Amino acid sequence: MAKTVAVIGAGISGLAALKCCLEVGLQATCYEMSDAVGGLWKFTEHTEEGRASIYRSVFTNACKEMMCYPDLPIPDEYPNFMHHSIFLQYLQLYAKHFDLSRHIRFKTKVISVKKRPDFHTTGQWDVVMEMNGKQESAIFDAVMICTGHHVYPNLPLKSFPGIEKFKGRYIHNKDYKDPKEYQGKRVLVVGMGNSGADIASELSQTAAQVFLSTRSGNWVMSRVWDNGYPWDMVYLTRYETFLKYVLPRSLSDWMYQKMMNKRFNHDNYSLAPLDRSLRKEPVFNDYLSTCIICGTVVMKPNVKEFTKTSAIFEDGTAQENIDTVIFATGYTYAYPFLDDAIVKDSNNEVALYKGVFPPKLEKPTLAVVGLVQSLGGIPPTSDVQARWAVRVFTGECKLPSNSSMLEDMEEKQGKKKSWFGQSDTLQTDYVVYMDELMSFMGAKTNLPCLFLTDPKLAWEVFFGPCSPYQFRLTGPGKWNGARKAILNQWNRTIQATKTRVVTGSPHLFPFFHLLCFFAVSLLSLAIVLMSK
Ligand code: FAD
Ligand code: NAP
């Protein structure tokens, strides 16, 4: 009989997990506490307990060719960067296309997941659900946790002495919906991740003044990158990844900083990160630099302390008469239905092999999907994680021994620090990580071989965007439309903005581009050979 799997959550990750289970013949049931699919992308007017919450103006920060599932391109007519309501339509389309909804039990919250007494031999779980105030339980052979990682606000009030005296209002950005109530107010936003930058720029239109305080600064990228293409179509390539790792670190860092400072000098805008070589997630924001140059957002360092009405910063400056503080200080992870000891290490941090499997379980029958953070979109990442996880459940793929997994995690931790700095998030390099999981499933594209058999495709795979379709090009789970989707990805990108016929536009000289590629490739090869 087919193994049974409980998938918890029907957001991006849960939908991918459910589909991957069904693909390999597992008998999956998905439990979703809300009444529809979409997770975080299903906007609600009010914050709900135990679920992520977004503001009204959220747009994707990955473009449509990079933020789709690998086997279902986003419709041609959708814009490159999508408002949350449009991206939600895509998720609904995905659920419909693969006929997933009939396997989902809506308005059903999982409240407990426990090992069964005979877990060491069966690997089975007791799962308790609650719907309409009634509880129900069931036994499952495996569990996939897809409950999201932007649910529990990190509100580090202890880091901000005097906040208890502050007479104004303070909130975490999870409770921010739109700028209406901030009209004419003096607002301090603390934390410059994507939420902080978005909210500060949005408020700058209506608030009397916005201050944006950042502890360590960050690089700010525009969604619109070289020649007007989406940043990730240009930057998230195998070629860039190859250069990053093959060049001496100092040269690679220099090139990275040069690229980041191309549009404006981050020092002059008080944005520059303290450690400029780290590849932690940049801020994707097209407006922040304009707000700063127009003075509607004023950058400040970390807050040292609050008084009744003001904020005093670490450089000794102060801002008086602050009405509201919005802490955009990120999120912490929690799985309240599960014993922490299963997923957390001795430092009380979530520690999983490849960001998916708890390394110390007697049987590999529990997987977390969607936790790892990288520059890539979550849909392809969750799809690849889920495809690997279900193959571990079926026995088609094997995990290394517990000690090897722990060793690997320790080694990766060191590398993570060197590239991404000290952080609680599980940051990783998109291309390297995805290829690693693909190789576990025997589904990684053999690029040298592809250059011999299909050079046109190989060229696009290496030099073009590392789009999701690449992860269903070969091997188990292959999608037959992948080649065509890869070769058409630029056309679809351009189509979305070319909504008016323009005559007489000059054609670029492709030979010049070719020449540039060869020159840069030769140069990098020469540098590598010299540095050996
Ligand atoms: P979620 O979307 O959070 O879905 C989890 C689901 O699980 C929810 O439907 C919830 O109701 C359900 N659930 C939770 N607990 C239970 C339970 N106990 N029982 C039953 N159901 C449960 N990522 C990108 O790739 N690109 C972006 O542009 C991007 N923009 C973002 C913007 C914002 C403001 C934020 C906060 C995050 C953004 N992210 C982005 C990251 C985002 O987390 C992912 O896009 C994605 O939503 C994660 O999907 P998920 O399915 O893992 O989690
Ligand atoms: P985040 O990326 O974790 O950023 C949190 C910020 O808070 C960081 O700048 C961090 O500073 C700061 N911070 C944390 N603790 C602090 C402390 N004690 N004192 C001072 N500063 C502190 O969180 P987020 O911005 O909410 O983003 C969460 C995820 O959602 C990200 O993956 C992001 O890409 C995504 N998102 C996407 C969009 C979109 O446009 N599509 C919009 C919003 C969010 P340090 O850098 O110094 O640690």
TrEMBL record:
GO terms for cellular component: endoplasmic reticulum membrane. It catalyses: N,N-dimethylaniline + NADPH + O2 + H(+) = N,N-dimethylaniline N-oxide + NADP(+) + H2O. Its EC number is 1.-.-.-. One of its GO terms (molecular function) is flavin adenine dinucleotide binding. The keyword S-adenosyl-L-methionine does not apply. It holds the Pfam family FMO-like. The chain crosses the membrane at residues 508-530. It is found in: Endoplasmic reticulum membrane; Microsome membrane. Residues 1-17 form the signal peptide. Its cofactor is FAD. It is an enzyme of class 1 (oxidoreductase). It is a single-pass membrane protein. Its main location: endoplasmic reticulum. InterPro entries: FAD/NAD-bd_sf, Flavin_mOase, Flavin_mOase-like, Flavin_mOase_3, FMO-like. Keywords: Endoplasmic reticulum, FAD, Flavoprotein, Membrane, Microsome, Monooxygenase, NADP, Oxidoreductase, Signal, Transmembrane, Transmembrane helix. Belongs to the FMO family. This is Flavin-containing monooxygenase. It comes from Geotrypetes seraphini. The gene is LOC117367888.
